[in-house]
Amino acid sequence: xKAIVAHRYGPPETLVLxxxxxxxxxAEQVLVRVRAASVNPYxxxxxRGRPLLVRLSAGLRKPKSGAxxxxxxxVVEAVGADVxxxxxxxxxxxxxxxxxxxxxxxxNFVPEPARVTFEQAGAVGIAGCTALQAVRDRGRLQAxxxxxxxxxxxGVGTFAVQIAKA
Length: 166
Known about the structure:
The protein has 166 residues and is of the alpha+beta class. The protein has helices spanning 41-48, 54-58, 118-122, 125-138, 155-165, and strands at residues 2-6, 15-19, 30-38, 71-79, 91-95, 103-106, 109-111.
C-alpha cells in the first residue's frame, strides 16, 4: 500500500510517499481503507519533533515509526476475532497512527453517523475527543450551566463550543 512517511524530523519537505506493508489486524483491531484523513497540530509536532519533549516517546534523533497522520475515516475491510462493534463494510472514523495511508489498523474506530461524510468524520478524531473530555469529563458541564471557551478558533475550541451548546 502507499503511505506518507517521515524518516527524519523536519519541515513538510521531509515527507515521502512510499510503498509499505499493509498493517496486520490483531484480535481487538479493525483494518480500515482510509477515505479521508485530516492534519492537526499533533501531526505537526510529530513531523518537526518539537517541542523536544515529543522526542522522548517518538524517538530522540529520528522517529521510531515513520507513519504519519492520526485522524481518519473510511470503510472497514477486516475485523479481528474480538471485534463486535463494527463489521466489514461499515463506515467508521477514529484515530490511529499511520492514517496518511491507504489502510490503517487499530482499536479506536467507531461507527460513522449516517449523515456525516468521510471528510467530516475524518476531521473529528483528536480535536473532537479532546473537546469532549474537557467539557464532559473534566468540566462536568451540566444542562443550564454557562461556559466560556477561551480560544475557540482552533479545532478543540470549535468542538468544545458545539459540545457545550448541545
